[in-house]
Description:
Shape: elongated
Mean pLDDT: 93
Strand order of the largest sheet: 1-2-3-4
Order of helices and strands: HEHHEEEEEEEH
Low-confidence stretches: none
Distance between the termini: 42 Å
Radius of gyration: 19 Å
Structural class: alpha+beta
Protein name: Integral membrane protein
Transmembrane segments: 44-63, 72-91
Oligomer: single chain
Number of strands: 8
Keywords: Membrane, Transmembrane, Transmembrane helix
Amino acid sequence: MRTAYVLVRHELRLLASLALWAARRTHGTRGGRAFGYARGQGPVMAGFAFVCVVETFTMSVLLRDWPLVHRVVLLLDVYTVVLVVGLYAAYVVRPHVLDPGGLRIRHAAHVDLRIPLDRIASVRRELRTVHERADGELNLPVGSQTTVTLELAEPVAHVTFFGRRRAVRVVRFHADDAGRVVQALARAR
C-alpha cells in the first residue's frame, strides 16, 4: 500500500511540474538563487517522448480491430507521453536553490535534499562520468555526468524515493553552470 502511495504522489508531482512549466513558474525558489540542471536532459527526454508517440501510433494500428483494447492502450500511451513531458518539466521547474538556510539539491521530483551551509566542508567543480555506488555518497547525474562535488563536515539524512533514510557525507550533482554554483557556495559560506 505504501508503494502505491509513493508512486501516486510522484505522478502528482510530475503533473504539478507540468502545470508550473506551462505557467513558466518554478517550485520552491522564493528568496533563493536558482541553478538549473535540465539543459542536458532536453534532447534525451525529447527522444524518449518521440519513441512513446511512435509506439502510440503503432499500437493504434495494430489494435484497430479490437476497439475496447485499442481505447485502453491509447489512454495508457497518451498518459505515458504526458508523464515523460512531466518528468522533463520537473527537471526544469525544480532547480537547485541556494538561500540563507542552505543549499537545496534536487533531481526532478525524485530527490529534494537540504544541506545547511555550515555542514559543507568543501565544494569543488569536478566533472565525473563514472559513479560507483559507495556507502555515504549520493550521486545525482544528468546525462551520466556530475559537475559539482560537496564534501560534508557532518552527514545529512537523505530520504530515498521509497522513504528509506540514509546518511550521506559526499554529494555529487549536476549543474548547467557548475562554476557559478561553486562561486556562490564559496561566497555564502
